[in-house]
Amino acid sequence: MTSSTLIDRNVHDRREVLRTQFQSAFPFRHLVIDNFLSKDFADALLAEFPDFERGNARNEDGSLGGKSTVERIRELGPAFAQLDDLIQSRGFLDLVGQVTGIDNLLYDPWYFGGGTHENRHGQDLDAHIDFNRHPMEPWHRRLNLIVYLNHRWEDEWGGSLQLHSDPRSEQNQILSVTPLFNRAVIFETTEWSWHGFPPIQLPENERGLSRKSVALYFYTTDRPAEELADTHSTVYVDRPLPDRFKAGHTLSETDVQELRVLLKRRDMHNQRLYRDVSNLTRQLEEAQAALRAGPIGKFEHAGWRLLRRLLRR
């Protein structure tokens, strides 16, 4: 099993063309590659794709949500075990490095945030940039590689991947990519690689379908100085109000429901930020306590208390 047999031959043959396309892509560096995997291999992955209920699909309140993920893909079956072997092989990493110009790529054995992703009717994803450092290793996140596994998908159903120039700007420009079967999207992970997808709106007779993909993330030990930024988690931009919401508009029941969804999502983003701040504060307090517990820390702590007393006089 090698990248030359599981990856479509056309990808190998066009690596120089793909590299040029990646470097010149708008709104940021990316590639869209149809028939990325060999057909038999893509079919085998879809056949082993986990049931929705098997994945992590629970909301914070314990209810079943609209998105399900499985990070431990190797356990899903022989095809996914092959995929796991493939993406950590030097041949595959070098191939992806050649078409993107990013050398010395690293495989993530934890699949942190990656693995299988399944989204049902009504699910969406606000425009965002991804966390930029690996949570367990001193690595920089550099590339997203997403392979879609949907034999049937129409643009009017929503759910297309959207690449944004700047979702905070009124001049934001969007490139949409339909999540078709065996289509791969590779894009850089930077402070400007904004992406997401609009709500999935399936016709009533198609509600049995879902948006299936495999998300793979790659890292390096360093990155160009112009791309460096402070370590951060995922940064979201809340979806703006639809254009129909303007002075004089009479709210329908659909409008009210949409407003509730937007407000709930904003609250969830705020709660996540509060949790991040709370966790950082706790870690800082624990570090300070550990310092005070040591001989030097106790001396330093006593010195600070004495100084504060003097300053209050």
Automatic annotation (TrEMBL):
The keyword Transport does not apply. Its cofactor is L-ascorbate. Residues 28-219 form the Prolyl 4-hydroxylase alpha subunit domain. Keywords: Dioxygenase, Oxidoreductase. Pfam families: 2OG-FeII_Oxy_3 (PF13640). SMART domains: P4Hc. GO terms for biological process: regulation of translational termination. Coiled coil: none annotated. GO terms for molecular function: iron ion binding; L-ascorbic acid binding; peptidyl-proline dioxygenase activity. It comes from the Bacteria. GO terms for cellular component: cytoplasm. This is Rps23 Pro-64 3,4-dihydroxylase Tpa1-like proline 4-hydroxylase. It comes from Pseudofulvimonas gallinarii.
